[in-house]
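Title: Prediction job returns without error message
Component: structure pipeline
Severity: low
Priority: P3
Assignee: unassigned

Description:
Job completed but the reporter wants confirmation the result is attached to the right record. Sequence as submitted:
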Amino acid sequence: MYAVIETGGKQYRVQEGDVLRVEKLAPGADRTVEFDRVLMVTAGDGDVRVGTPYVPGAKVIARVVSEGKSRKLLVFKYKAKKNYRRRYGHRQPFTEVRVQSIQREAPVAEAGAPEAGADVPANPSDGGEV
């Protein structure tokens, strides 16, 4: 089973147990993060669900392994014949996560929750009678 998720403006194909580096996320180390922007999810039997744009109820649960910065990229600006030269570096922050589970659909509603189509009292502000 694998899924395609979207985070940080990028798309990733993930399976359970995968470790990947994504753009910096807010939670610190040893926290759980949920990716609910699932574009596609498949099962082992060949059943594929594609979202429009996201699959409703599907999510990927991952645990934050570490945070850090990638290797330094050097940027060099130069203008010919003008004696203009600038060099600086950039290190992009990232969060490393390990995928724990992939959920294909929303969990079943609790027994105490109202069912769809149940009688709902009229709201006077809607113009209906009370």
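Comment from assignee: result matches the submitted record. The chain has no helices and ten strands.
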